[in-house]
């Protein structure tokens, strides 16, 4: 698959747009990833993205944390128990950071190398169960809007799962309710959760 022509420049601009704490984390993550294995290609998909014989990892900065996701994490050993986010995902495993000092460069480099090796060995992203269990409150909200419900029901497994996880990962009831409203509005207008990042 061809690498996006100005991927590295897009990543430069993306990192520069972050607040200082997130910028420091993402700069460090990028540096560790690029040094870990010469076969890695830097790309831009829905954000900074690295591949070698398939998708390896990617990172993104948010308001209070940055997240590094290993797309084939389910095939990794996680020997040091670093995975602390998206651990119930079918394939991906993530590490959430709130400060650049939390990044152990040597250890993270070993994880990146393992991820590259997992791809080399032929890791297959095969979904065993394609049924998405939709939370009752989300389903109720969708049922009140026929357009949104139809759009949601027609989504593929992965996009439905993204929406469901967005709801179930909310820590507070208020946040959960806000996310449900946002999902209904997005579905009504025919958009997926992260479309703005995938342009």
Which CATH architecture of the largest domain would you pick? Alpha-Beta Complex
Query: How large is the radius of gyration?
Result: 18 Å
Mean pLDDT: 89
Largest sheet: 5 strands, antiparallel
In helices, the fraction of residues equals 40-55%
Low-confidence region ranges: none
Content of β-strand: 5-15%
User: Which sequence of strands runs across the widest sheet?
Assistant: 1-2-3-4-5
Distance between the termini: 17 Å
Per the principal axes of the C-alpha atoms, what is the gross shape? globular
Count of helix runs: 7
How many domains comprise the coordinates? 2
Order of helices and strands: HHEEEEEHHHHH
Pairing-aware structural class of the strands and helices? Answer: alpha+beta
The CATH class of the largest domain? Alpha Beta
From the 3D structure, determine the CATH topology of the largest domain. Answer: Aspartate Aminotransferase, domain 1
Annotation, overall tally of beta strands = 5
How is this structure best described in words?
The protein has about 200 residues and is α+β, with helices and mostly antiparallel strands. It has two domains: about 5-120, Aspartate Aminotransferase, domain 1, CATH 3.90.1150.200; about 135-195, no CATH class. Helices cover about 45% and strands about 15% of the residues. The chain has helices spanning about 5-15, 20-35, 105-120, 135-145, 145-155, 155-170, 175-190; strands at about 40-45, 50, 55-60, 65-70, 95. A five-stranded antiparallel sheet has the order 1-2-3-4-5. The mean pLDDT is about 90.
Keywords:
199 residues; Aspartate Aminotransferase, domain 1; 7 helices; 5 strands
């Amino acid at each position: 698959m061809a690498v996006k022509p100005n991927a590295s420049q897009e990543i430069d601009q993306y990192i520069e747009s972050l607040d200082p704490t997130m910028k420091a984390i993402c700069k460090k993550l990028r540096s560790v990833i690029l040094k870990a294995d010469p076969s890695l290609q830097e790309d831009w998909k829905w954000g900074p993205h690295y591949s070698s014989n398939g998708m390896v990892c990617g990172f993104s900065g948010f308001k209070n944390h940055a997240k590094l996701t290993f797309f084939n994490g389910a095939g990794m050993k996680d020997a040091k128990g670093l995975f602390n986010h998206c651990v119930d995902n079918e394939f991906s495993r993530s590490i959430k950071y709130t400060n650049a000092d939390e990044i152990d460069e040597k250890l993270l480099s070993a994880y990146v190398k393992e991820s590259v090796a997992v791809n080399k060995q032929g890791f297959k992203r095969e979904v065993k169960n394609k049924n998405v269990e939709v939370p009752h409150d989300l389903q109720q909200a969708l049922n009140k809007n026929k357009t949104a419900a139809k759009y949601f029901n027609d989504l593929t497994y992965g996009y439905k799962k993204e929406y469901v996880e967005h709801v179930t990962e909310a820590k507070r009831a208020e946040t959960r309710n806000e996310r449900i409203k946002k999902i209904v509005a997005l579905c009504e207008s025919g958009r997926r959760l992260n479309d703005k990042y995938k342009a």
